[in-house]
């Protein structure tokens, strides 16, 4: 991508005028007088999600129990249907994805199935910059196998507390590793790991590998089937714009469809025989077998509208605009805010092949106060200790002018000492 930017406001407006995804902004509810750049924590409600939500509420009102089979999108198959819909976003076959559970629960469901310590291979490899819930889940899965997480969870180190190095991770893929579980994009600095390379290297050593893609699905294309990733999980309420606490997704590569789920529940049963109510579990022959409970249909309804927009915009186009937004932000910070007295540092990869959907803006001092001052201008970023302001522009509802304004506000906040 060859981006030649300029610092003028007119140039920001020119970028917006050329933006082929600009029309999608109108499909979202953007809180009044707000520049919302927190889509990697909670994506915004779209009119499409509102429509699908209202439809399902009306079906509940008018069809009651019959909604499971005769609703417009029958509730009984809703989870598998959503999986089919989003399969192209993650490069999966239609039966390899299902909308179910929540991210942490899905991590438990999949790790309990894929972590089978045997002989010399007893350890899980993860990393020190991982999201806390993922690490808690891994430790508890190790304990449930009667092993000690101190010994059996290996965390790849970071040399600078910001980045991970694939080479270091690969060096740790030793004989005693049974399973690897890593993030696709690191939640703090937005570094994108090379999932294809890591999967290849893991498989060379007979190690299974899964990814938590909560910070990448909806912002970046994935090719799970082609890469031969064993399994993956991700939430739907960040770049997928599907609503607070809405159902999550899981992916399992088709070669594992005969694997026994670790946490079995009746919604993992073959759909044709589930309602025979036999006490003998008969798992479905697709990713659906890792489901546990009845799907939360109300939340899933919001997912339907949200996914429709992403498919319409196209994930490749979303990625292209997302990179242009973050590259533009980096450019403006470098040009306007990198020297005394501003001293902002870009804590995210400059190489677009290694960059996810957000930028970590760092500053040695007062970054928390600066983040608070930014909020007083109606900007909604978020803050991650100890000194990171995360700015996550969404390709679907943010503009280049939003980015330009944020940089002007930051400049003003420092010029006037408003953070003090
Ligand atoms: C957002 C996120 C989660 C969220 O987990 P929940 O179970 O939905 O609360 C988990 N892992 C990662 C890496 C995340 O970014």
The major β-sheet equals: 7 strands, mixed
The chain-level structural class is alpha/beta
What's the Cα radius of gyration?
22 Å
Quaternary state, please? single chain
Q: List the secondary-structure elements in sequence, H or E.
A: HEHHHEHEHHEHEHEHEEHHEEHEEEH
Please state how the strands of the largest beta sheet are arranged side by side.
2-8-7-6-5-3-4
Mean pLDDT over all positions = 97
Poorly predicted sequence stretches spanning 5 or more consecutive residues: none
| N- to C-terminal distance | 39 Å
Strand percentage: 5-15%
Query: The CATH topology of the largest domain, please?
Result: Aspartate Aminotransferase, domain 2
CATH architecture annotation name of the largest domain: 3-Layer(aba) Sandwich
Give a count of the beta strands, DSSP E runs of length 2 or more: 13
Q: Which percent range fits the helix content? A: 25-40%
Bound molecules: pyridoxal-5'-phosphate
Number of domains: 2
What can you see in these coordinates?
This protein is an alpha/beta fold and 420 residues long. The protein folds into two domains: 9-30 and 315-415, Alpha-Beta Complex (Aspartate Aminotransferase, domain 1); 50-312, Type I PLP-dependent aspartate aminotransferase-like (Major domain) (Aspartate Aminotransferase, domain 2), CATH 3.40.640.10. It is built from 14 helices and 13 strands. It has helices at residues 9-18, 47-63, 67-70, 78-90, 103-114, 132-144, 149-152, 166-171, 195-204, 224-227, 297-313, 315-337, 367-375, 400-415; strands at residues 35-36, 97-100, 123-127, 153-156, 177-183, 208-212, 231-234, 248-252, 344-346, 359-363, 379-380, 382-384, 388-391. It is globular, with a radius of gyration of 22 Å. The model has no long low-confidence stretch (mean pLDDT 97). Bound molecules: pyridoxal-5'-phosphate. Residues 102-104, 131, 133-134, 183, 187, 212, 214-215, 235, 248 line the site of pyridoxal-5'-phosphate (PLP).
């Amino acid at each position: 991508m060859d981006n030649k930017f300029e610092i003028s406001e007119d140039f920001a407006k020119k970028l917006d005028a050329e933006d082929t995804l600009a029309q999608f902004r109108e499909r979202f509810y953007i809180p009044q007088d707000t520049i919302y750049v927190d889509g990697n924590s909670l994506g915004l409600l779209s009119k499409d999600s509102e429509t699908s939500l209202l439809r399902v509420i009306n079906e509940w009102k008018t069809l009651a129990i019959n909604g499971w089979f005769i609703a417009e999108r029958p509730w009984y198959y809703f989870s598998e249907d959503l999986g089919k819909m989003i399969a192209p976003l993650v490069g999966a076959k239609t039966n390899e994805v299902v909308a179910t559970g929540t991210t942490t629960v899905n991590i438990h469901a999949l790790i309990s199935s894929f972590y089978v310590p045997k002989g010399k291979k007893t350890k899980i490899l993860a990393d020190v910059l991982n999201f806390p819930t993922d690490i808690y889940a891994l430790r508890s899965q190790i304990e449930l196998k009667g092993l000690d997480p101190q010994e059996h969870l290996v965390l790849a180190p970071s040399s600078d507390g910001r980045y991970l190095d694939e080479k270091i991770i690969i060096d740790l893929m030793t004989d005693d590793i049974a399973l690897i579980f890593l993030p696709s994009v690191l939640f703090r600095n937005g570094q994108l790991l090379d999932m294809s390379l890591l999967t290849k290297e893991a498989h060379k050593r007979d190690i299974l590998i899964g990814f938590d893609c909560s910070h990448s699905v909806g912002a970046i294309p994935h090719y799970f089937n082609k890469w031969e990733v064993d399994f993956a999980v991700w939430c739907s309420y960040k770049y997928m714009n599907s609503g607070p606490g809405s159902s999550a997704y899981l992916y399992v590569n088709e070669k594992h469809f005969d694997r026994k789920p670790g946490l079995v529940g009746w919604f993992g049963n073959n759909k044709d025989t589930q309602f025979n109510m036999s006490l003998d579990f008969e798992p479905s022959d697709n990713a659906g077998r890792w489901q546990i409970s009845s799907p939360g249909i109300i939340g899933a309804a919001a997912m339907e509208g949200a996914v429709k927009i992403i498919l319409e915009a196209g994930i490749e186009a979303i990625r292209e605009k997302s990179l242009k937004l973050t590259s533009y932000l980096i450019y403006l910070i470098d040009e306007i805010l990198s020297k005394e007295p501003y001293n902002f540092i870009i804590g995210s990869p400059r190489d677009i092949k290694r960059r996810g959907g957000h930028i970590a803006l760092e500053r040695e001092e007062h970054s928390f106060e600066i983040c608070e001052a930014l909020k007083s201008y109606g900007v909604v970023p978020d803050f991650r200790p100890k000194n990171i302001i995360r700015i996550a522009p969404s390709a679907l509802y943010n503009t280049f002018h939003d980015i330009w304004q944020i940089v002007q506000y930051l400049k003003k906040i420092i010029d006037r000492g408003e953070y003090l």
